Amino acid sequence: MRDLQVDPEKDPVLARALVGTLRDEWRPAADAMRSAHEWERRAYIMLTLAAAAKRRVEWLRRWLKARPDDRDAVAVQHTMESLNGH
What's the pLDDT tens digit per position in 12-50? Predict the structure, then answer.
């Protein structure tokens, strides 16, 4: 995830989410999405998480299985699919 580096001091929420993706943990990603109230921030987090899911998707699958109606999880999934060209 070299190109997905986030400074943990400047953005601890997103940094935790990215570390969670490496551990196949979805809750930090859910927390990051839930914390985003401004559109630009939300889009940035969603794109970053979608790029992380392209590299390692198991955490996103677990999130979708645990919460199939979670709009944030679905948004990350659709963004990932867009990045994949689907």
Answer: 999 999 999 999 999 999 999 999 999 999 999 999 999
Q: Which of 14, 86, 1 is nearest to 51 (CA)?
A: 1
What is the C-alpha to C-alpha distance for residues 84 and 11, in angstroms, rounded to an integer? 26
CA distance 9 to 15: 9
Rounded to two decimals, the pTM is 0.90
**17: which residues sit within 8 A by CB, 6+ positions away?**
28, 29, 31, 32, 45, 48, 49, 52
Retrieve residue 43's tokens. Answer: 């889009």
Place of tokens 């400047």: 10
